[in-house]
Write a structure and sequence with these properties.
eight-stranded mixed sheet; 204 residues; Protein Transport Mog1p, Chain A; three-stranded antiparallel sheet; globular; mainly beta
Length: 204
Amino acid sequence: MIKPFTVAALLCMGAVTALAQAPAARAVTPVFSQLVSFSYPSGFVPAFEDSKPGGYIQESVLRGEALERWTQMLTLSGARDLAANPQMTPSRFAGSVAAGFKNACPLSYAALGLGDMRLGNHDAFAAVIGCGTAPGGARSEVALLLVVKGERDYYTLQWAERAEPVNGPIALDVAKWSERLQRLMPVKLCTRVPVEAAPYPSCL
């Protein structure tokens, strides 16, 4: 269960295709039936990508860090054809992710819903989820999660951070994570244009 919180006014290495030197670089990535566009935070670099028939994942870490050892990670994922399930909603999808955290750290788990939103014509939901002591006991982990329902598929953006472990439920800084959510904006989904290639100008 994600405790709700209302925020005033308020988720192959070549997949990040529209990066520029400007601080507010845009990333446009084809994921199944649509293009996913968001603001790619300065300092991150692509580190891993994998696409299977039912799921897609792309991970970026801070420059100088690695998948095996990182302090911040940005993850884009896709779940193919999940939007066809009438029982699924962005908040329920976020709840399933939160359940995974809770199972991993029941004594130090905390979650906070940042609320439902609309991104263009698409329903979305944002939350912050964390473990004071992540599995292994050597660190804490908190993640901003943005879930977006596409035309056919579901997409998520996660911005995770690791730090020193803490005892008990981890404190979640609403202002910090709401600001990071805004740094990813605008997030939008675009229709894929036949034969269009990177940098996918139709979605920039």
